[in-house]
Design a protein that fits this description.
single chain, alpha/beta, 434 Repressor (Amino-terminal Domain), Rossmann fold, 3 domains, six-stranded parallel beta sheet, 14 helices, about 15% strand
């Protein structure tokens, strides 16, 4: 058998695993399917460009969009390669092929009739962290709130191709909209109370333990009558309320329902209610556990205007540790929530669903930050 015949026999045994590229009388020239060279008729794909550049497909895509999260040198190198090969991304065609938008809708699940808004510093802090985490993962953020968005979130955002998935910030008082999204089998993650047994992934702080830490700090500061200032019907706040009761019980202090003041979780509501309570009942408390730092600020303003010494007469502990907490006078003792880690975990659990992997709820640790609104910090 001639040399050429032997080559033809060998190549015929492996041809089913390879694409035929060219034929000549004596032999077959072949390439692996994934290594096929470009012909004049073929066009460079994003995956091919990424291979040429030695980066991932997502990095190549972001570099072509001039995303600042990609190093300048890398962006310029990939853009130069794209220009050299006359490559450009057809975003519309790409979306039609993949049915992906690379957009995630972030919905602020605000309670009906509340004055709380996106201007709330904690919500701003969370939104900022989510935006950064999504950008790092190659997604853009579409921000909305529950009062602006259509009540059918799954239809409005997912079916209409406005977004690939949802991150819902807050469980609020009603979960109807969230349950509708679950029923529609749309990818979602909720910022809320992860200890609740739900059929969707929840990322959130250990709210009950946070409420316990805050109240325990007040009791250890000498407080005997601790006011709870917040909304006990709100899912996360209700867990903080359980922590408040737990600390009272542990310290063998009588639970007095009259010390529970239900309000909208805003500074204005706290300021008005504390003023009203002092006017009607006098200074009947020596400590305040406010369910958020903004609520604490409203209470502190009311106390200071009535010349109540803080923490001499009344000690105050908040929840969240927003940036203003350290700058307020007196600096606020509070329970810190890690928004950066929370955002990272929410994005990770959403991407798990995009990749058809199981998503899990995650509990974040909280930390008591002692400052001058409680006497132990002096």
């Amino acid at each position: 058998m001639s040399f050429c015949k032997r080559l033809q026999t060998i190549f015929s045994n492996v041809c089913k695993n390879y694409r035929i590229f060219a034929l000549c009388p004596c032999l077959t020239v072949y390439f692996k399917i994934e290594d096929v060279a470009l012909t004049q008729e073929s066009r460079l794909t994003l995956t091919g460009l990424a291979k040429l550049a030695g980066v991932s497909t997502s990095t190549a895509s972001r570099a072509l969009r001039d995303n600042p999260l990609i190093k300048k040198e890398t962006r310029e190198r990939i853009q130069a390669l794209a220009k050299e090969h006359s490559f450009s991304i057809n975003h519309a065609a790409s979306q039609l092929r993949t049915q992906k938008t690379n957009v995630v809708a972030v919905i602020l699940n605000l309670t009906d009739h509340t004055e709380q808004s996106i201007n709330d510093p904690f919500l701003l802090k969370m939104v900022s962290a989510l935006n950064l985490a999504l950008n790092k993962a190659g997604y853009e953020m579409l921000l909305s709130n529950s009062m602006m968005a259509d009540s059918d979130w799954a239809s409005y955002f997912i079916s209409s191709r406005r977004a690939d998935g949802l991150i819902i910030v807050g469980q609020g008082k009603s979960e109807d909209n969230v349950n509708d999204v679950v029923t529609a089998k749309a990818p979602l993650v909720v910022w809320g109370d992860p200890k609740l047994n739900k059929n969707y992934p929840i990322v959130g702080s250990d709210n009950q333990y946070g409420g316990y830490l805050a109240t325990k700090q007040l009791i250890e500061s000498g407080c005997k009558k601790v006011l709870f200032l917040g909304d006990t019907e709100h899912t996360e706040m209700a867990q903080r309320y359980l922590g408040y009761q737990q600390a009272l019980k542990e310290a063998e202090l009588h639970f007095d329902p009259s010390l529970t003041i239900d309000i909208d979780i805003t500074s204005k509501a706290a300021y008005e209610k504390v003023n009203q309570e002092i006017l009607n009942r006098g200074l009947f408390f020596d400590g305040i556990f406010a369910v958020s730092d903004m609520v604490a600020f409203g209470a502190l303003k009311a106390l200071k205007e009535r010349y109540v010494s803080i923490p001499g007469d009344v000690s105050v502990v908040g929840f969240d540790d927003i940036n203003m907490a350290e700058l307020f006078h007196p600096a606020l003792t509070t329970v810190r929530q890690d928004t950066d880690l929370a955002a990272q975990l929410m994005v990770e659990q959403l991407i798990c669903q995009f990749e058809q992997k199981p998503a899990q709820s995650k509990v974040l640790e909280v930390e008591l930050i002692k400052r001058r609104s409680t006497p132990e910090s002096y």
